[in-house]
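Project outcomes to date are best conveyed with an example. Our students and postdoctoral researchers have been running inverse folding experiments weekly, and each run begins with a structure described purely in tokens. The record below, which covers 468 residues, was selected by the lab manager from last quarter's runs and is presented without edits.
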């Protein structure tokens, strides 16, 4: 790590450690004053600049607060506020009134350095100025005109969190934008007509139904994109064979799937829709069963759990997520939706609410979980300052996505699906399947089937209160 020019009593500090020290606030163990505490006491406590031996004067000349200074005499928060006033100016020298909540959220972030870096980006400056000056409507439809889409999605989440825009499912909006860009690329008029109908009456209808029950995931919208692309490819396949969809035969379907069943399996939805809507004759859609990967052994599972306790080189965030997989057989889609309110600490006992009743967290994992609650990431920027998510994401008001968490565990060599399979098989061998299902949020039929496959002895257990 590169050494910086900051020479403190402990020695030279690199830029990262120096920045972290100047973002640490609390009660000084030396004088008892609540202020900036960048120093360290011999017992590990926090010390203010005076009690630490005169580390320097970090008082901002504008606001009078102690903070890391971005330029001579001025803290990062004041510099960020000045820059935001320029970007959100509606042309009258004042911030556009509708964007004041966004301004307040951004300049009050605990770590203004992230906001300064974000506001330096040319496309961010262009988009903020376009909204401030009314060049683009301050609506979801207006945001759809801006680019690049990732930056716009981030800005949209911020505006929703601030209350500037009404809530909307961002994945659904991104799919609509993708579809609007995709349809004009279809050159065959007859294909375009069929794909528009398929997208409107099947794909978008299903996505809206899913969104009504909860936020869409990127996996769900990616599946929708794949279904559309495969439907288009299948129509091109028929054209190459000199046919249209109305004349599709069983041989056409079999030839299509013979080219790669797994890669083309999502064509199922298009063919079922086409048959139900009378756009093609009835054909038989081939089916191949797909089995879950073999579970890891119990010995391997316990070895992985021991590593999660001992390896401090693995980020605590990843270790906690891995424990929830290996101990409680939780899928990443459910882990990422947990909140800090799902963790209970009462009378020295730690519980995690995955179902009803909450599940006990054994030592030493209870200590890991409590330590993690005090250092959750992504809570010092404008995106999730008050987040209750157990794994806050980088998007405003959003948790980390399963797609973001999966590669983190995979890069550690952690077998997520085989590990989860091993955990649920072991749990149903130790307790009745209905009890495990209720505690972990599983379906009774699913755990019962796993128990039978694992050779469990609780088959005739009747759930309920047996104390009477």
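After processing, the design step wrote out the following sequence:
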């Amino acid at each position: 790590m590169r050494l910086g020019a900051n020479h403190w009593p402990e020695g030279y500090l690199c830029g990262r450690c120096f920045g972290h020290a100047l973002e640490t606030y609390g009660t000084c163990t030396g004088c008892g004053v609540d202020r900036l505490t960048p120093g360290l006491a011999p017992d590990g406590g926090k010390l203010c600049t005076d009690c630490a031996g005169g580390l320097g004067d970090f008082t901002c000349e504008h606001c009078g607060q102690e903070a890391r200074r971005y330029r001579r005499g001025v803290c990062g928060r004041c510099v960020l506020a000045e820059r935001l006033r320029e970007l959100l100016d509606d042309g009258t020298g004042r911030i556009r009134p509708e964007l004041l909540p966004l301004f307040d959220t951004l300049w009050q972030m605990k770590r203004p350095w992230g906001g300064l870096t974000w506001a330096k980006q040319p496309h961010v400056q262009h988009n903020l100025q376009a909204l401030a000056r009314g060049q683009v409507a301050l609506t979801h439809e207006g945001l759809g005109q801006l680019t690049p889409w990732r930056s716009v999605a981030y800005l949209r989440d911020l505006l929703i969190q601030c209350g500037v825009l009404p809530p909307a499912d961002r994945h659904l909006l991104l799919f609509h934008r993708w579809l609007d860009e995709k349809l004009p690329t279809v050159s065959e008029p007859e294909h375009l007509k069929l794909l528009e109908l398929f997208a409107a009456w099947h794909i978008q209808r299903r996505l809206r139904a899913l969104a009504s029950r909860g936020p869409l995931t990127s996996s769900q919208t990616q599946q929708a994109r794949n279904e559309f692309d495969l439907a288009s490819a299948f129509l091109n396949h028929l054209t190459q064979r000199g046919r249209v969809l109305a004349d599709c035969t069983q041989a056409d379907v079999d030839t299509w799937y013979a080219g790669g069943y797994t890669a083309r399996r999502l064509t199922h939805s298009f063919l079922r829709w086409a048959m139900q809507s009378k756009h093609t004759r009835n054909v038989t859609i081939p089916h191949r069963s797909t089995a879950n990967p073999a579970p890891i052994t119990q010995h391997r599972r316990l070895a992985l759990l021991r590593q999660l306790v001992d390896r401090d080189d693995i980020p605590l965030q990843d270790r906690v997520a891995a424990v929830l997989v290996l101990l409680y057989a939780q899928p990443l889609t459910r882990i990422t939706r947990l909140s800090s309110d799902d963790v209970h600490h009462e009378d020295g006992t730690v519980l995690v609410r995955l179902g009803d009743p909450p599940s006990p967290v054994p030592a030493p994992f209870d200590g890991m979980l409590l330590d993690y609650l005090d250092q959750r990431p992504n809570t010092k920027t404008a995106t999730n300052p008050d987040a209750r998510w157990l794994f806050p994401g980088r998007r405003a008001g959003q948790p980390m996505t399963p797609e973001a968490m999966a590669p983190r565990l995979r890069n550690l060599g952690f077998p997520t699906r085989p590990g989860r399979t091993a955990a649920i098989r072991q749990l149903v061998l130790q307790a009745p399947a209905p009890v495990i299902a209720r505690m972990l949020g599983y379906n009774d039929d699913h755990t019962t089937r796993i128990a039978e496959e694992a050779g469990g002895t609780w088959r005739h257990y009747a759930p309920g209160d047996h104390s009477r």
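The first helix runs from residue 15 to 21. The mean pLDDT is 89. The training component of this project remains on track.
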